[in-house]
Amino acid sequence: MRGRTLGAAVALVVGAAITTIPAAPPTVASPPARTAAPAPPAVLAAPDIAVANVQAHLTQFQTIATSNGGHRRAGSAGHTASVAYVKGKLQAAGYTVTEQTCTSCVYRSNNLIAEWPAGPTDQVVMFGAHLDGVSAGPGINDNGSGSAVLLENALVLAAQRPATMTKRVRFAWWTDEEQGLNGSEFYVNSLSATQRGYLKGYYNFDMVGSTNGGYFINRITSTTAAPLKAYWDSLGIQPEENVEGQGRSDDYPFQQAGIPTSGYAAGASARKSSTQAAKWGGTAGSSYDPCYHRACDTTSNVSATHLDRSADGVAYAIWQLAVGSGTPGTCAGGQLVGNSSFETGTTPWTGTTGVITSSTSRPARTGSYKAWLGGNGGTSTETLSQTLTLPAGCASYPLTFHLRIDTAETTSTRVYDRLTVQIGGATLATYSNLNAGSSYVARTFDVAGYAGQTVTLTFTATEDASLQTSFVVDDVTLQAS
């Protein structure tokens, strides 16, 4: 990864509109009809990428560096040999492979572009990683890791030879990234406006095996990031925005050209926070990669766990985005709601501070924590939300949460306080002080209409000027199967 910084911020807007309250809120409801594009075709299950094979490519990059002055810097013999190694593997697998000489690079050298010859030529998803390193060391995490992950994914795609490709898949290994993102910028500038329009997304993978690493996604809230996030969410990883890497790797020239981008990273020289160490493991206060741009960036400087999870996430994205089938494969579903019982802090929920609480004034359904909205006895609005990605191809998408309502209101006919539940901006149900009871009640909704989309689930409580109503939510699940 290039060693400069470019600050940016990502914001998530939460909130919901209040709608008319039904006399008796339904236990089961369906979301309103959508006006989006037709449902995507069914997809085959993504293959498991063998991390041992990825590590074998890293060993080859290490051997190449050792045989060529200890590094694989762009324009050097080590980089040329790395390009030859990757190219030979891809050509043998059946890819259309092109070397593009970067004439504007600091070190004149070649990008390597490989395209799988199936799928529509005007619908392209692209996956890239820089193959060069710095002259200080062999560059195995930075960026042999991203390069090896993409190489093995390309080889698996070729071995699988899917019968139907809904998009064309293109891979790239960039040169001269460490000197200023020059290889990828040269490639983007070489594309015509029409060719840029064919690119429906670019995914970048730079340093995905850091030994003290985190789990970071570029532009994490974007639609482009959805398949990458969906896979890591299925593992309960709780990924974060790649703040450190913004503007510092090869996705940046694509982003500047108006092409949607995302990607994985495990972190470079920035230091892991105590919160990150608590949820991901590792050492707080230490760099994600202690050998960043150093001679010790060898095969010993790579986390097999991070490498494996990144490789499998890339495969999931490729299959979700580009591989179709006449019949569905195994559903890549599971529990989609993170921290569903509120027992592990607030992440990935966002909203009003203090809503997630272990206060004994209102009991949790299970464990010690729950989300307690309202109960203030005065004019207030409180929210709680989480962004979810629903994979396509599953048969069932039940959203369930348990709700306990108690109130100090004495009327049996008039609504004063209410809780609205929304997903994707549409209201599933609205509850009020009229629905108060002494126990938790399971509320279940079929949200299959949102399959293949990234949507926000939002709870919004509003109270009037006097007399409290408490809406206590616990054990929120969305089990795609």
From TrEMBL:
UniProt superkingdom: Bacteria
Entries under Pfam families matching the protein: Peptidase_M28
InterPro entries: M28_fam (IPR045175), M28_SGAP-like (IPR041756), Peptidase_M28 (IPR007484)
Keyword flag Nucleotide-binding: no
Keywords for this protein: Hydrolase, Metal-binding, Protease, Signal, Zinc
Record domain Peptidase M28: where: 111-317
Signal sequence annotation: 1-23
Family listed: Belongs to the peptidase M28 family. M28A subfamily.
PANTHER family membership: METALLOPEPTIDASE M28 FAMILY MEMBER, PEPTIDASE M28 DOMAIN-CONTAINING PROTEIN
Protein name, as recorded: M28 family metallopeptidase
Species assigned in the record: Micromonospora cathayae
